[in-house]
Amino acid sequence: MSTTLLVVQTLNGLQLGVLLFLIAAGLTLVFGVMDFINLAHGVQYMLGAYFAVAFYGLTGHFLAALLLSLAAALALGLLLEVLVFRHLYGRSHLDQVLATFGLILFFNEAVRALWGSSPLSIPMPEALSGSIALMPGLLYPVYRLAVLAAGLGVAALLWVLITRTRIGMRVRAGASNADMVSALGVNVRRLFMVVFGVGTMLAGFAGALAGPIFAVEPSMGDNFLILAFVVIVIGGIGSIKGAFMASLLVGLVDTLGRSFASDIFKLVLAPASANQVGPALASMLIYLLMAAILFFRPAGLFPAHGQ
Predict the structure, then answer these.
(1) Radius of gyration of the chain, Cα coordinates, nearest whole angstrom
(2) Distance (Å, rounded) from C-alpha 205 to C-alpha 150?
(3) Residue 133 CB: number of other CB atoms within 10 A?
(4) Distance CA 62, CA 188 (A)
(5) How many CB atoms lie within 10 A of CB 98?
(6) pLDDT tens figures, 210-265
(7) Which of 131, 188, 198, 231 gets the most CB atoms within 10 Å of its CB?
(8) In this predicted model, what pLDDT tens digit does every residue of 77-131 receive, in sequence order?
């Protein structure tokens, strides 16, 4: 285990963490404010990546493709809220799960029909290509650092929006007691639309940022959806602070665990056994972490007030 590899994998874990936060932030607000289970949230991450591919093909410019994909993700989120989601408010969680799972199947097949099943990619922005020396012997891609900085910047802006603005006050109140917010005269339907739109846009932003790093392919959002649910359970449903801290924690545990589990087990096991046990345990680490945290803090690390 070298220091250089440890630093690289730590940065990779933080980058994964900020992408998870962009997905989990909208998911935890939707779940916390509306008590709505949206399994299609991972689809919105996938569509953000495909929108970026499509708009890059039209414009040939990464920044333009990123901004247009954000607008498209927001428009799609609002459209889905009007056509599908608002008809599920107040219904049972089973109805919500079945309906949003149907959306997963629909959009996964839709992107296969439009773009095919082969993985696609977005070219690395020229201004962010190449690597930068972080320490002697350590070169790290500039684009990955830019993704990390963008995710942290969005997290800071979202914190300001939630904690320092009137609409943020209503969202926090809705996450604590939506019925009381409605009784006080707040237009809950409009609040729900705003939350859905922002959540969809954040997930689309994460997909667009991930395009130059990961393969853009159907069902690419499914694994991120599972990780996002782990994040909101660990952080606390409805809590932006919890989603941020848990995202970084999950990103680091998952990345470092997959990188170093075998090396750690070689300290106590034979190399052949360690190479078998390490990867198997590494894939379980975040779920073991979730179980341990819920044992001591059933509401999560930073539950929303009133939860």
Answers:
(1) 20
(2) 10
(3) 9
(4) 36
(5) 13
(6) 988 888 899 888 888 888 889 988 988 777 888 899 999 999 988 888 888 777 77
(7) 231
(8) 889 888 888 888 778 888 888 999 999 999 999 999 999 888 888 888 888 888 8
